[in-house]
Amino acid sequence: MMKIILFISFTLSSILYCEGQSTTSENLKDSIFKKYVENGAYNYNYLTQEWQKYLDSAIAIIPDNASLWQQKAMPYYKRRKYEIGKIYLDKAVELSPKRYIDYRGFMNCIFAKNYTDAIADFNKSKELKGEANVMDHSYDFYLGLCYLQLNRFKEAEHSFQLSIDKSTKDHGPDWVHFLDYFYMGVTQYELEDFQKSVTYLNKCLAIYKTFADAKYYKAKCLKKLNQKTEGDSLLKEAAVDLQAGHTFNEDNSFYEFYPYQIGSWYLPKVK
Predict the structure, then answer these.
(1) What gap in Å lies between CA 66 and CA 4, rounded to an integer?
(2) CB–CB of 177/145 below 8 Å?
(3) Which residues pair with residue 137 across a beta bridge?
(4) What letter does residue 79 receive in the DSSP assignment?
(5) Radius of gyration of the chain from its Cα atoms, rounded to whole angstroms
(6) Which fold has domain 177-271?
(7) Helix axes 178-190, 212-224, angle to 10 degrees
(8) Per-residue pLDDT for 271 more than 70?
């Protein structure tokens, strides 16, 4: 099938080249997308070989199209084949940095766990696009995650505060994402400011009342604050909530755990 698709691709490419006087660049891109992406790759699951073969055919004709390289890269990240995916995603960024550098930062942070590269990508994204969002969160949110994972806790605190401030300024305090509060609480826990951690975790739990991970870290803080009875009780609540599935609900948590996501082994057994 690969040979057939590529043969058709190169034949079509030759025809279009010969008829170049009547075919615009945008018309060419539209026709290739319709033939090989909309009516080709999109008929298959993105984890299949057919998906890759159709994209290869389109890239053979319009290799300077960044979105094709991004579509080729994405399934490799979802299969944890990060080194392969990086080759294609780097090409997408090379061709269209303003469009894809924040996406690469997201993939480096959440999937590949390459935090140093993710920081570079998000700082460059700020230069190119200002204070923006990608995959439902601000650049500063992801910078906070990266710094947190690199044990650069004061920088993480600063980034999460910027993210909270941006949401508050743009839309009001009710628009702050519960994960901003959660990770600020975790950051304060790492900084050993346990009372401040509880404050942020309470804000998180006011939005997502059954969030097992937030209850777990709050319980740890309560124990550090010599409130052992309350802490033990909250740990039991967290165990029940976790068993009921009340943990991270981001789309990509299906593929990758988020930093500081807890597992059942941290909690007491639920009877």
Answers:
(1) 24
(2) no
(3) 134
(4) T
(5) 23
(6) 1.25.40
(7) 30
(8) no
**Average pLDDT for residues 150-167, to the nearest whole number?**
97
Tokens 């995603």, located at residue? 89
CA angle in degrees (0–180, nearest 5) for 172-175-178: 135
Q: Which of 262, 256, 254, 258 lies closest to 234 in space, CA to CA?
A: 262
pLDDT for 10 equals: 36
| CA angle in degrees (0–180, nearest 5) for 181-110-64 | 130
Mean of the pLDDT values across residues 98-110? 97
Q: Under 8 Å CB-to-CB from 251, ≥6 apart: which residues?
A: none
Cut 0.90: pTM above it: no
Q: Would you say residue 121 has pLDDT above 80?
A: yes
Place of tokens 């740990």: 235
* Domain parsing of the chain, residue ranges: 177-271
**In the predicted structure, residue 58 carries a pLDDT above the cut 50:** yes
Per-residue pLDDT, 67: 96
Q: Are 215 and 242 in contact (CB under 8 A)?
A: no
Handedness of CA 86, 92, 94, 98 (dihedral sign): negative
Cα-Cα-Cα-Cα torsion 187, 193, 196, 201, nearest 10 degrees, comes to 50
Would you say how long the chain is, in residues? 271
Instruction: 44-49: list long-range contacts, CB under 8 Å, 24+ apart.
Output: 46/71, 46/74, 46/75, 46/78, 47/75, 47/78, 47/79
* 249 CB neighbour count, 10 Å cutoff: 12
Those residues with Cβ within 8 angstroms of residue 113's Cβ, 6 or more apart along the chain or in another chain: 149
